[in-house]
Amino acid sequence: MTAWPSVGVVVPTHDRPGPLRAAIDAVLAQDYPGDVRTVVVYDRADPDHGLGDDLGVTVMSNTRTPGLAGARNSGILALDTDLVAFCDDDDVWLPGKLQAQVTALRSHPAAEFASCGIVVDYQGTMHPRLAGRDAVTHADLLRSRMVMVHSSTYLTYRDVLTSGIGLVDETIPGSQNEDWDLALRAAHRHPIVNVDTPLVRVVWGASSSHYARAWETKAASLHWMLAHHPELAEYRPGAARVYGQLAFAYACLRRRGDAYRWAWRAFSANWHERRVPFALAVASGLLPAETILRALNARGHGI
Prior knowledge:
alpha/beta, ten-stranded mixed beta sheet
């Protein structure tokens, strides 16, 4: 095997020093034979340059569009490594993650992008989420969002991001679904290589991401996805999932007419789409949204 490629790790953050330190420590603890460089990108917060002195990482501010997408791109463009990986500031890479993914990526010469399994940590309870396959196709991601194809698992060639797949799209409302959009664009070029082992701990619940936005923005980002990936409508179960999410978002916004309209579209596309009864329960006032979300999160699932 030739020399191991260098890897640049982009960690976007706002103002959460505790989780951020844990995320960085896990990256630095990776037993990877090649060069690993970490860049922490502060978005809409004053950067802690002392962090870089302490841990040997590069600290910078988001120089592009405010938000998660701009922060990721700032980090990508600041690096000159062979590969680029992402890690959100509230997630933790598990031992062996980086070497396993680089090995898998290099074993498929035509491949450009890699992911891996995750374990969802909800209030200390762990739920492994695996794809059940060693490659994820464009059609797979149209049929299902595949939560395990998570941004903190992404590993790709830097030049593919800058001149192939393209950078993270900064026009998505609130940077919501920016990782799904990137994965769809990547898989459209070549199936994503997947290491089907839980190698990233993804935290849900009380310490959820700073980049999560209100329901209005969540709905806007889903409309953006439907407009920019019209093929989503061709896969009825996948389309029903998006329509069901829109119904739930509008129910949370107390826009009952829109909630019922999108719930009907979801039901028409897939009569057993599970988000339909949830959206109707919230829209009709039978259950508060938080009760439903807590119950789903406790099982390692989301809306």
